[in-house]
Amino acid sequence: MSTLTEQKRGFWDDRAKLGKISGSNDFMLKRIETDFILRFLPRGARVLDAGCGNGETLIEACEKIAINGMGLDFSPEMVALATQNGKPLKDRLSWRFADLRDLPKDIGLFDAVYTQRSLINLNSLDEQREAFENIMALVKPGGCFIMVECTIDGQNKTNAQREILGIEKMEIPWHNLFFSIVEVESWQNAGRRIEYFDHISSTYHFLSRVVYAAVGEPDGGELKYDSKINKIALRLPPNIGDFGPVKGWIWRKSG
Ligand SMILES: C[S@@+](CC[C@H](N)C(=O)[O-])C[C@H]1O[C@@H](n2cnc3c(N)ncnc32)[C@H](O)[C@@H]1O
User: Which pLDDT tens digit goes with each residue over 118-173?
Assistant: First the structure.
């Protein structure tokens, strides 16, 4: 295992201590992502969360749409946290230590698999492609892969607006490698197609990272993830424009 992978595992092990916000400080953006995932999960389906973090999304899916299934993560601390959080649903959900680059072969197939910003943690495009292929191999014929991941395209769009207003560029975190939309599209073949694509973080990112970043708090205080403007963004359709790094793809495997 490369040193970089071990550094990343250490980073996520540490973040597990944050509990509810261990997967992202931006809990409003996570709400938008989770709503997208829940919208496309078939009721009662067998589901895999690949890079499950604290397990919150899978637990919510189990409670709201009666799915069952499994969450995987390469951080032992995240697996422990998800196992603890998921205890009340232990008859329907299980949690396992696994790496996206080497997914277990003994877990059967799933009606739906999803990732929520986990593939961006891999070290190279080759590793991301390998993990994507591993995931598609676990999808039943006719099933779907819900891919919620960050793109450089959306990040650049937001940064271009920030630049106009004289706000510093948002950098990609050291542990992330963002996708290119065109590259992801090139992974389609006769056995799998992108059935739907959406700019799910567009409205939220434009309002929170451009407008709110420019206006700031009335007292000049620190910017907040639950600012009034961010809350307004949550009430609007998520996909006004094409801003924001986080995108949603629905992959369909041929039946
Ligand atoms: C941004 S967090 C998101 C967690 C969760 N999906 C959520 O939305 O809260 C990324 C997660 O991916 C996991 N991860 C990163 N690299 C991984 C790998 N190679 N294999 C499995 N999980 C990985 C991390 O441990 C972390 O829990």
Answer: 999 999 999 999 999 999 999 999 999 999 999 999 999 999 999 999 999 999 99
Rounded to the nearest angstrom, the distance between the alpha carbon of 164 and the centre of ligand 1 is 34
Q: pTM higher than 0.70 for the full model? A: yes
> φ, ψ for residue 49 (rounded to 5)?
-100, 110
Element (H, E) at 254: none
User: What are 57-114's pLDDT values in tens digits?
Assistant: 999 999 999 999 999 999 999 999 999 999 999 999 999 999 999 999 999 999 999 9
- Ligand 1 pocket test target in 8, 11, 12, 60 with most atoms within 8 Å of CB: 12
Using CB distances shorter than 6 Å, the residues near ligand 1 are 12, 23-24, 30, 51-54, 57, 73-75, 78, 99-101, 116-118, 121-122
CATH fold of the domain at 3-253: Rossmann fold (3.40.50)
Domain locations along the chain: 3-253
φ, ψ of residue 12 to 5 degrees: the values are -75, -35
Q: Give the H/E segment covering residue 11.
A: helix 3-15
If you measure from the C-alpha of residue 177 to the centroid of ligand 1, how many angstroms do you get, rounded to a whole number?
A: 13
Q: What distance in angstroms lies between residue 49's CA and the mean position of ligand 1's atoms?
A: 10
Residue 37 one-letter amino acid: I
Q: Which atom of ligand 1 is nearest the CA belonging to 99?
A: 20
